[in-house]
Sequence to fold (159 residues):
Amino acid sequence: MTSPRRRPAERTSELRSVGPAVAYRVVVRTPDFSDGQLLEGLRAAAAELGEPLTSGTYDAWQRGRDIAASPALLIRRFGSWRAACEAAGLSANTTRSTSRRWSEDDLVAIIATYLASDGATGSFADYTAWAKTQDGAPSGATLRQRGSWADLKRRASQA
Fold:
């Protein structure tokens, strides 16, 4: 049996055993990109897609391309999507983060309103569906950026 071929600049790691009688082989493929290669990938995407380049449009563009890294890698390397775009000389999206649009007190009040609404089950999935029908309510994803659903719900119940 021949060993699998790897693309250049990829690392593999193996976890040989997890206990006395259990062994696993795990291969992790992580392409190595220099900062210059990461920035070139951003510039290539911006040339095709236009500016400002969002992480979502870049993510769709980079899938299946060996020359471009994921947005997550760019964010890890440069600290933020905006910093990566600026390092590449591109304009960054200037919309403000939705996670800071609502204060902590706003979130607690909105969740309390949800919990008091007719038919509310108190589940995260139910809140997410409810929020889609409410003007100005943060999405479930936005809430998760600010804390656990259980903690936010507990605080809303005490308000």
